[in-house]
Amino acid sequence: MSEEPEIVLGLYVPPHPHPLLASEQNEGWGKLRDAFDTCRQRIEESDADLMLIYSTTWPSIVGHQIQAHPKPVFTHVDDDFHFLGSMPYEFHMDAEYAECYREACEARGLHARTVAFDGFPIDTGSVVALKLLNPDNRIPACIVSSNVYSNRAEQIVLGKAARDAMSKLGKKVVVVVVASLSNRMFTEHIDPADDRIHSAKDDEWNRKILEFFENGRLEDISQLSRDIQGQIRVSKVVAYKPAWWMAATMGQHNNYDGEVLAYEALHGAGGAVIQLTPAKGGVGDKEFDEDDVEFYHGDRSVLDKGML
Amino acid sequence: MAKGEVVLGCLAPHPPHVVYAENPEQNEPFSEGGWEALRWGYHSLARKLKGIDYDCIVVLTPHWQTYVGTHFLGLERFQNISVDPIFPNLFRFNHDITVDVEMAEAMHDAAAEAGIITKMMRNPDFRVDYGTIVSCHMLNPDWDKPIVTISSNRSTHYYSNEVMNEQATALGDAVMKAIEASGKKVVLVASHSLSHRHFVTEAPLPEDMSREHIYNHSQYVWDMKIIDMMRRGEMQEVIDVLPEMIEQTMAEAEGGGLTWMMAAMGMPDYPAEIYGYQSVIGTGNAIAAWDPNEATRQLVL
């Protein structure tokens, strides 16, 4: 068992079905599809033996759920974009890693469980990522949910638990985060040709985030998560969590080679395909004042401490 | 043709726990029971429904979440297994659902005519959400009536609770026009809880009722306040305070169900029938009905 996990690369990809189902309908959607294809090729050329996905379109409430069905088979249809078509799938999951991840979560104080049920609804973002990045199930995968109530501490510990399990099993891993940048879509149906980022503000923030990614500044983006949530994220959940999890999983530093393969609008939301490759030498000039977290202690029972 | 009408409106929460606890043959997991206050309330309301003459059930569900407009089920039959993504250990339900497509299309057209962004859902592989299934199963376990499912537009997330109230009211008004024009007798269902903060852990035996209680007292106080207003027939007032309740209790009415149903029913000023209240994994769930027919309206609880 190695101390540090071997992460061959990290990917940040959008959850929308358009690159999978309708890439020919819009030039930008086609560019995102091409970027997915490039990533697929790079994964095939790597010697990774696990693809670990954190999907913002798989919400959980009871702790953190980890997909452990060795061969989930179903046909998925998106709630909003059902008219683009169906997504039949048959995936190959790494059940051993899933169980190990659950144990690692519990060892760090998290409530977690594996799910392995026929017909379980794998979410749009995970289906899109797996079908485009790993179409032949060349390497086994695992998916972890995004708890709707979790915040920074819990999310960081969840990432560290993923590392624990990778180290324990000696896995070579491709880490995939499925999330938009800005996530405000148009609220009406649009002609695909008219797609664009919803607002200039969303676009400006997206480009600043992409600049950080391009410079490999993953930990800096993680530290900016609260600002990102306030500025360009629709308040569906309490926080913008993907960067917290991605940094905690890949390593909380800025030592990465970053590459933005595509950045396009997806019904108004900011969709980007980004690759981070662990490297030597960091960038950035920031230090941070939020504590790092190793173990999740749950609620601090503030309400039970009485009134002043 | 006689004018169509709403014959009953139901607030029908959809925790999968209640179906799990019933052990119907369609559901795969087995339970030892649990949540009786809710289930017995549902049984009582289902008996009342059996005595009412109606053509279809129209349900607005917060578990079909759409950001691009309001969508309507648009195919006659959906046969599949529905596995709850949150509680797959409790709910793996084999369903065979019949849809009143004519009614769905009429509602879609009326909403579009009112300026609401709409879409018919025509993909045969689409999986009907578990909110629809739980509420409809508990109200009509025989599944002998067609349904219409309306998605929950997430205007609360994109704008505010106040905008949700405005848009859901417009949808309710439009749906009522479609019902009146159809000549049909319709049961409306708002499928959701009241307060909606969950515990994030689950007992080893989910139906262990020694572990079940409301998430916190604030949630309970809000739930009781709303139920008291329902009893007094103050539904306009309920809708008026709903944005604040949603803000403070994460109430699942954020999906628009209650506002939509009350608007369609003309904001009832008569007492609601209360069939039960109980927490499920910390959330506050009330079963209530609004009977426009004074002769059959009851004081249940």
What would your notes on this structure say?
The complex is a heterodimer of chains A (308) and B (301). Chain A has nine helices and ten strands. The model of chain A has no long low-confidence stretch (mean pLDDT 94). With 308 residues, chain A is of the alpha/beta class. The longest helix of chain A has 19 residues. Chain A has a six-stranded mixed β-sheet with strand order 7-2-8-1-10-9, sandwiched between helices. In chain A, strands 3-6 form a two-stranded parallel sheet. In chain A, strands 4-5 form a two-stranded antiparallel ribbon. In chain A, α3 packs across α5 and α5 packs parallel to α9. The termini of chain B are far apart. Chain B has 301 residues and is of the alpha/beta class. In chain B, the strands form three sheets. Chain B has a six-stranded mixed β-sheet, sandwiched between helices. In chain B, strands 3-6 form a two-stranded parallel ribbon. In chain B, α3 crosses α6, α6 packs across α9 and α7 packs antiparallel against α8. Chain B has one domain: LigB-like (Protocatechuate 4,5-dioxygenase, Chain B). At the A-B interface, β2 of A face β2, β4 and α5 of B.
Tell me the layout of helices and strands.
The complex is a heterodimer of chains A (308) and B (301).
Chain A: E1 6-13, H1 18-21, H2 27-45, E2 50-60, E3 64-67, E4 73-76, E5 87-90, H3 95-107, E6 112-115, H4 124-133, E7 141-147, H5 152-169, E8 172-178, H6 200-214, H7 218-223, H8 225-232, H9 242-250, E9 256-266, E10 269-278
Parallel strand pairs in A: 1-8, 2-7, 2-8, 3-6
Antiparallel strand pairs in A: 1-10, 4-5, 9-10
Helix pairs in contact in A: 3-5, 5-9
Chain B: E1 5-11, H1 16-22, H2 36-50, E2 56-66, E3 70-73, E4 77-83, E5 92-98, H3 101-113, E6 118-121, H4 130-139, E7 147-153, H5 155-158, H6 161-182, E8 185-190, H7 217-231, H8 235-249, H9 257-264, E9 273-280, E10 283-290
Parallel strand pairs in B: 1-8, 2-7, 2-8, 3-6
Antiparallel strand pairs in B: 1-10, 4-5, 9-10
